[in-house]
């Protein structure tokens, strides 16, 4: 059976890389939206709203076609404060100092839209992330690498040199921007099945033994 077209509503290199692990063939067509949070908007509602808006915006370009639109949004939450992508070195420095040696939450929302049937399915993944007590010198070196500027909270959990995270609970892939097991269970609702063994591919590529993948696929509220 011919699979419907899949459109990733993102220009993120990490999301493209990770979506390729599923074995699905896909195209990219990003949405250009104002990503500012609404006043007092909780983190889960914020990422869900943005992911949904991205999916609906891109879906308008494919009205009536047998296409799935996949959108995602990620934010770092420190208490009630949302930390998005730092605008400059000063903001990245402030974020990294604020998060240093403490635990925060990373929220990633998925939105998968069946354009032909006008059905939007969503899911949210929440992970607990504890940062190590890295030094100011390490922060400056990391900023000089240019890596913080396209990442919520100003860091990449997978960065081989900086290695900012010392403890973790939830979905590792979600902190990178695309919770793949959550995506698989969402897509299963419309019988859109990935060709590859997604949990295995994810763990192999991330070199990470995930303790929650089966619970996620079973529909449990973990991660």
From TrEMBL:
Function (record text): Nucleoside triphosphate pyrophosphatase that hydrolyzes dTTP and UTP. May have a dual role in cell division arrest and in preventing the incorporation of modified nucleotides into cellular nucleic acids.
Enzyme Commission number, as recorded: 3.6.1.9
Source lineage: Bacteria, Bacillati, Chloroflexota, Anaerolineae, Anaerolineales
Pfam families: Maf
Similarity annotation: Belongs to the Maf family. YhdE subfamily.
Cofactor: a divalent metal cation
Residues annotated as catalytic: 73
Protein name: dTTP/UTP pyrophosphatase
Keywords linked to the UniProt accession: Cytoplasm, Hydrolase, Nucleotide metabolism
Domain of life: Bacteria
Gene3D superfamilies per the UniProt record, alphabetical: 3.90.950.10
Reactions mediated catalytically: UTP + H2O = UMP + diphosphate + H(+); dTTP + H2O = dTMP + diphosphate + H(+)
